[in-house]
């Protein structure tokens, strides 16, 4: 029986028309994987449409795409919808009600993905969905060069903290070397990824980090971002990307929490940890998901209450490791 990876390769080879989608509010891995898959299909002479419930984030406006990123397909005439970096169907946003699960291949590396497609290649052992797309490209005989290489590097670099997180794999590093051998300018691409800050982001980070608090005897760092803070800074949700990692830079902090108030009420939370501290289980307990050291979700609670609830749960995860 073929593996999901081989089945997806077969369907791509035999198919004619494809949709390529990823989770709403795409990060570097989601958008990079989307672009990369599009470039792979383009190299194979396939017809494809790139989809997302959200527009291209401003910080990735430089990224070359093989086609426009649309909110919905022009028709229902397609052979396969390839859904990337999406931990569950709701993360597709409005696309969830448009895409047909019977004609869907899910490619993802998040723990807890229920497998909501007809074919599901879910592999938490891979550091990024971009790594998985790179392997598919190699299976299909598509060289990892040009804009495809830039998209893959963006996907893998952003999801591994530029190859510094514990989930960074040997395969990922080997693929990075192949991208460089194929002509990727790491310096130029890295600068495009990193040097996209707005003044609003600087102001937001200044205020948020200035109010950072420590819990559990300094082992848990907590950052809050309210709607008022976003308004004062002239910043948007995209400006919170990477903010949480600063809490882990504090000596003695094993886990970090970021809570961001949503315009319509409730909040989005992000969790990060180092070493053996498993915060994926914490996120799952609140209906979220992710990885062992990086997870998140949403809560229908006021900021202050959510801070206390999450801090207590994360502290338990930290103490479980410290006491082991």
From TrEMBL:
Pfam family, one: DHH
A GO term, aspect molecular function: nucleic acid binding
Domain DDH: 18-155
Domain DHHA1 stretches: 232-318
InterPro entries: DDH_dom, DHH_sf, DHHA1_dom, Oligoribo/pAp-PDE_c-di-AMP_PDE
UniProt xrefs under PANTHER family: BIFUNCTIONAL OLIGORIBONUCLEASE AND PAP PHOSPHATASE NRNA (PTHR47618)
Full protein name: Phosphoesterase RecJ domain protein
């Amino acid at each position: 029986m073929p593996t999901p990876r081989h089945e997806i390769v077969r369907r791509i080879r035999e198919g004619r028309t494809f949709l390529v989608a990823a989770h709403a509010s795409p990060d570097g891995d989601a958008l990079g994987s989307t672009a990369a898959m599009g470039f792979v299909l383009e190299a194979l002479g396939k017809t494809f449409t790139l989809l997302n419930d959200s527009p291209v984030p401003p910080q990735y406006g430089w990224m070359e795409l093989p086609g426009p990123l649309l909110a919905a397909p022009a028709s229902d005439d397609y052979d396969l919808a390839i859904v990337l970096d999406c931990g569950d169907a709701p993360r597709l946003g409005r696309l969830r009600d448009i895409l047909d699960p019977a004609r869907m291949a899910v490619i993802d590396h998040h723990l807890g993905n229920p497998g909501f497609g007809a074919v599901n290649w879910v592999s938490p052992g891979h550091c990024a969905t971009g790594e998985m797309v790179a392997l598919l490209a190699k299976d299909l005989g598509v060289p990892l060069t040009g804009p495809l290489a830039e998209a893959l590097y963006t996907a893998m670099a952003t999801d591994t903290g530029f190859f510094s997180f514990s989930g960074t794999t040997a395969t990922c590093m080997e693929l990075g070397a192949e991208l460089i051998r194929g002509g990727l300018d790491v310096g130029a691409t890295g600068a495009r990824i990193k040097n996209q800050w707005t003044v609003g982001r600087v102001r937001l980070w200044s205020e948020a980090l200035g109010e950072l608090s420590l819990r559990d005897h300094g082992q848990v760092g907590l950052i809050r971002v309210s709607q008022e803070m976003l308004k004062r800074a002239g910043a948007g949700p995209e400006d919170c990307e990477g903010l949480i990692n600063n809490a882990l830079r504090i000596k003695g902090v094993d886990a970090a929490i970021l809570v961001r108030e949503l315009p319509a009420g409730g909040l989005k939370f992000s969790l990060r940890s180092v070493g053996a501290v498993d915060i994926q289980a914490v996120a799952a307990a609140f209906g979220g998901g992710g990885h062992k050291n990086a997870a998140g979700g949403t809560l229908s609670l006021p900021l202050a209450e959510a801070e206390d609830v999450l801090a207590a749960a994360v502290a338990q995860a930290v103490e479980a490791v410290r006491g082991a």
